[in-house]
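Need residues for this backbone.
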């Protein structure tokens, strides 16, 4: 950590692997932070699917009470559940940071790493117990390619708060991510340090 950097705890477990990645490429940069991320909106989507599944199971039970052919009930319940889930998604507004086709696709279970010169994203599977030296990063973007960061948006799902943010690139694309509840504090600090380093505050 440099003398003028915000103190951001980086899990050594992931920071060590990120340092291996940099060293193997001859990149001499300091790992400042490593935080768990997921694609923006993933928590809400998972909750919606679980609600749809529960309603579908209940619908199957109601149909079963009235009789019906074996094997038909799961199909009916599943269709009802999917319909409810789709309707819930259609009716709600697109959450802050929801990705589009032109954006950088993120792993469902990833790690965002901020170094003194770049942003890295790894899938956690690539940084697991048996892969101490990840062969590739899912995303490797120099800080010079980052145009700005968006305002933070708090999303509450089933009483749990996550934070969504977009890192906008000069190319026009963006990394639209979500910090899960356990990573909100460190993720917020990482974004503040990123904004400071690129010299542009949240939009």
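Answer:
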């Amino acid at each position: 950590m440099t003398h003028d950097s915000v103190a951001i705890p980086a899990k050594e477990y992931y920071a060590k692997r990120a340092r291996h990645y940099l060293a193997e490429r001859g990149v001499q940069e300091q790992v400042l932070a490593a935080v768990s991320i997921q694609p923006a909106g993933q928590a809400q989507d998972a909750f919606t699917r679980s609600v749809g599944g529960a309603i579908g199971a209940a619908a199957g039970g109601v149909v079963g009470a009235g009789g019906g052919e074996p094997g038909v009930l799961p199909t009916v319940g599943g269709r009802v559940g999917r319909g409810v889930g789709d309707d819930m998604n259609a009716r709600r507004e697109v959450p802050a940071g929801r990705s589009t086709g032109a954006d950088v696709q993120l792993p469902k279970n990833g790690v965002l790493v901020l170094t003194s010169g770049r942003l890295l994203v790894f899938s956690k599977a690539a940084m697991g117990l048996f892969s101490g030296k990840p062969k590739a990063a899912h995303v490797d973007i120099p800080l010079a390619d980052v145009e700005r960061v968006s305002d933070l948006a708090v999303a509450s799902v089933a009483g749990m708060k996550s934070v969504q943010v977009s890192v906008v690139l000069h190319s026009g694309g963006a990394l639209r991510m979500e910090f899960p509840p356990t990573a909100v504090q460190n993720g917020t600090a990482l974004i503040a340090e990123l904004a400071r380093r690129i010299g542009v505050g949240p939009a």
